């Protein structure tokens, strides 16, 4: 019997199973959708696309290579230097008293009530929507008491009032001329020695002229002139009429820092001229450091009560003034005419409340030292009086 081989049968069955498996796989792929092959990575497999000049996305595909990472660049630094619009404007308020030198304009003195057109706008400053011809009605009371009963003590009380008239566009500029008449009553008690003598009262009547032109956006000036009569009205002569002046140049070094240099003419017997030099630094709208000799002032915003902003400040000044008087001569046993200087130094701390309707009220307490009374008559020795305290209150509207 011939032996039958089953190998062709098994080969045919194997081919049939493979064909059935391939057919099943094709149907499954057709049911799920065709999957595109992954692109080849590397420079050889990079896809080439058409160049689009308006596209903001990378147009050369992704490039990946072991050990390579795309460079990252930090964002450009943001400058902390404020724009030019933050330059402060030139001040336009007059000094309160040339007899004691140019006091700091702020916070004790009011901010400029007239804001001229300037290329650089002020920072966060309350703008008055109207102008008044009569500006800055002011009153101030200063009290230096006797602290003991020594004969070389001196008590003074000063009552000062003033008002400012505004004349805009002075000399065809955008800055006004400020004209301020003022009057001060001085009440004196002491000294009680048998050599020196002072009347019980004296007066100061003056007229201020102030103009602060802006020469360039970074350079402006503070100019002032005062003429006044300083006497007890018992002795009036050529020494009773005194002329005083102020000239200070200001250079804005940065938007927050201004260099100041100039002089103030005080027209006293002992001292005629004082230098004015210093630095004004306003790091923000709530801080003002006026480090200027001879009248420095450091100011800082404290709090708000209702619609009133409250500032605290510390300052210093070269005080008092010069008058012609009639005094009693203990040698001649008669009244004689003379002129005196009273000089002192003062430091103080204070609080000031400001209101958007222009009203500003302030109160100060301080210490007064190196007080000297100088006489024009050569036969009367000068007198050094005792140190004392200072209380001062006032308002501007």
TrEMBL record:
Residues 95-117 have a biased composition (Low complexity). Keywords: Signal. Residues 1-30 form the signal peptide. The keyword Signal applies. Residues 79-94 have a biased composition (Pro residues). It comes from the Bacteria. Residues 72-117 are annotated as: Disordered. This is Outer membrane protein beta-barrel domain-containing protein. It comes from Bremerella volcania.
């Amino acid at each position: 019997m011939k032996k039958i081989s089953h190998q062709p049968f098994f080969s045919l069955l194997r081919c049939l199973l493979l064909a059935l498996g391939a057919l099943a796989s094709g149907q499954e792929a057709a049911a799920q959708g065709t999957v595109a092959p992954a692109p080849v990575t590397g420079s050889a497999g990079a896809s080439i696309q058409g160049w689009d000049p308006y596209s903001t996305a990378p147009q050369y595909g992704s490039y990946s290579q072991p050990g390579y990472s795309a460079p990252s660049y930090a964002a450009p630094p943001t400058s902390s230097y404020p724009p030019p619009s933050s330059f402060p404007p030139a001040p336009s308020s007059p000094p309160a008293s040339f007899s004691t030198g140019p006091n700091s304009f702020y916070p004790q003195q009011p901010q400029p009530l007239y804001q001229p057109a300037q290329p650089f706008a002020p920072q966060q400053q309350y703008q008055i929507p109207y102008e008044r011809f009569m500006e800055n009605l002011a009153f101030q009371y200063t009290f230096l008491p006797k602290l003991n009963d020594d004969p070389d003590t001196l008590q003074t009380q000063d009552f000062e009032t003033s008002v400012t008239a505004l004349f805009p566009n002075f000399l065809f500029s955008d800055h006004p001329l400020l004209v301020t008449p003022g009057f001060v009553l001085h009440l004196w008690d002491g000294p009680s020695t048998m050599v020196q003598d002072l009347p019980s009262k004296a007066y100061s009547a003056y007229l201020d002229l102030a103009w602060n032109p802006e020469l360039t956006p970074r350079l402006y000036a503070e100019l002032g002139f005062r003429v006044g009569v300083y006497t007890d009205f018992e002795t009036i002569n050529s020494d009773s009429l005194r002329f005083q002046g102020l000239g200070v140049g200001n250079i804005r070094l940065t938007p927050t820092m201004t260099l100041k240099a100039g002089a103030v003419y005080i027209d006293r017997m002992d001292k005629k001229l004082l230098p004015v030099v210093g630095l004004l630094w306003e790091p923000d709208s709530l801080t003002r450091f006026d480090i200027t000799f001879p009248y420095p002032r450091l100011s800082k915003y404290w709090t708000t009560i209702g619609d009133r902003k409250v500032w605290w400040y510390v300052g210093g000044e070269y005080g008092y003034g010069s008058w012609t008087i009639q005094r009693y001569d203990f040698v001649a046993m008669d009244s004689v005419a003379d002129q005196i200087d009273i000089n002192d130094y003062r430091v103080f701390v204070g609080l000031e409340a400001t209101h958007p309707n222009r009203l500003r009220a302030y109160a100060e307490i301080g210490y007064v030292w190196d007080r000297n009374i100088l006489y024009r008559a050569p036969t009367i020795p000068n007198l050094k009086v005792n140190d004392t305290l200072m209380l001062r209150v006032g308002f501007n509207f």
